[in-house]
Amino acid sequence: MDIFYQKYRPQKIADLDLTSVRETLGEILRQKNIPHAFLFAGPKGTGKTSSARIVAKSLNCPHRDENGEPCNRCDICQEISRGESLDVLEIDAASNRGIDDIRALKEKVNLQPLKAKNKVYIIDEVHMLTNEAFNAILKTLEEPPEHVYFIFCTTNPEKIPETVLSRLTRVDFHRATHEEVMRSLKRVVKGEKLTVDKRVLEIIAQVADGSCRDAHKILYQLWLENKGKITAKKAQSILEKWQRTSPWHLLELLGERKTKEAVLLLENLLQEGIEWQEYGRRLLETIRDLLLVKVGREQKEKPASRLKDKFSYSDIVRLGEIFQEALQRSKTASLPQLPFQLAVISFGEKETAKKSSFSQGKVGKTEKKNFSSPASSKPQKENPSSLGKNSPRGGETLEEIEKRWGEILEVVKPMNHSVNALLRACRPFRLEGERLVVEVFYQFHKDQLEQERNRQIVQEAFRQVLGRSLQIIFRLGKKPSQENHSPQAAPVNNHFPSNNQKEEGGDDELYEIAKEIFGE
């Protein structure tokens, strides 16, 4: 299935699919002094091994140009491209992870190259090495022989000891953008002289989810099935199968609150032989992309742009939390798909509970309105607690917002614990139409809550609880005291600061918590 990917594997820097990697490696290889140890880190299928072979050719090609590009015609380049060079060793750390394997490697390091100018060790999935193996190779990384270069490739750089990381020149590989996958596909179409609808390539680029290798696999399967012109109609069934394996499809079902279908999808993925750790990592990356688009980053022709309005900020936070936990549990689970299925159900139940709570809240407000006394409509003298009690657009009064303050805090908590802690020392002060003034009692709290990202969290919580958007304004007020705080003006529940309050969660403690979280 890797036929196209192997045939059109990049052979020089200019062929690499990722723009950032092309630029970074091009700059490094143009220098006279090239680092002796690299780390290529990123998801699978993004070109790490291909890039490592190109670097190996550049280090050894006797005819490389001023930009560091190998000629790809000499015997040395040809041997490295075929994986036959005795001076460029590709080692799978998953199979050679122990200290004995590394000791054997160290013994060979000082040997001179047989044919090429330099020896290059490409160690794939280097994070699989044991700690003892890393310690054994550390000295060699600190003082490598002049003719020896190391290129470590990994999908999990966080598992590499810091002592090793500090001695490596790191190049980060990311999932390819839509444009980068299209560029890679067009290279195959041109080389094979294929007739493919442009719409088919667009769909492949979307389904491949940033992996050029997967994109080439899909195109090859379509070519096998059609043996001629690949139209959107002919490609539909195959593309639908690949679409089901994309994490975006799972998020689409969750966005439509189709819990049953999402659980069954994960069961079907098991039948198709999905690798759950890889799927889980891709899913978390997808959730991150969704979050970035939600906060305003443009992402042309990505599913995130289509799905962003189906999820609130707290939805995205919860998705990240439950699937991160599912990924961890899946490592040791007897049924690796089960933690992901339970996460889906957990998210679905939370949504059901949220709708039920909101529905009950609407009924409560209707009853209150139906049984209110005519006397309640008489104008009252304004004071800080009663100003704006009636919204001009018929929304909640200040008193109702005060009563639901605890609900708002609960919504904020999973989105940001620090903002939740700060809000516990505040109180709603005045409602002015669609503007809610919230009273804050410390300048430090006010400064933190007025940061745009924190203000957006608070406003999103109000939108979820009240079903409408309010503009939140923070006002610095005087901390209530026994002398100047009358019972009439007292906060209506225990979420607000009260006179001489020293219980857990009080103002002074919250101030210290906030200082610790946000810094001075």
Structure description:
The chain has 520 residues and is an alpha/beta fold. It folds into four domains: 3-172, Rossmann fold (3-Layer(aba) Sandwich); 178-244, Orthogonal Bundle (Helicase, Ruva Protein, domain 3), CATH 1.10.8.60; 248-345, Up-down Bundle (Zinc Finger, Delta Prime, domain 3), CATH 1.20.272; 384-518, 2-Layer Sandwich (GMP Synthetase, Chain A, domain 3), CATH 3.30.300. 52% of the residues lie in helices and 9% in strands. It has 23 helices and eight strands. The protein has helices at residues 3-7, 19-29, 48-60, 75-82, 99-109, 131-142, 162-165, 178-192, 198-207, 212-226, 232-244, 247-255, 259-271, 276-294, 303-307, 313-330, 338-370, 398-403, 405-415, 417-423, 443-449, 452-466, 507-518; strands at residues 37-41, 88-92, 119-124, 148-154, 169-172, 426-432, 435-440, 471-476. Strands 2-3-4-1-5 form a five-stranded parallel sheet, with helices on one face. A three-stranded mixed sheet has the order 6-7-8. Helix 10 packs across helix 11, helix 16 packs antiparallel against helix 17 and helix 19 packs antiparallel against helix 20 (417-423). The longest helix has 33 residues, at 338-370. It is globular and about 85 Å long.
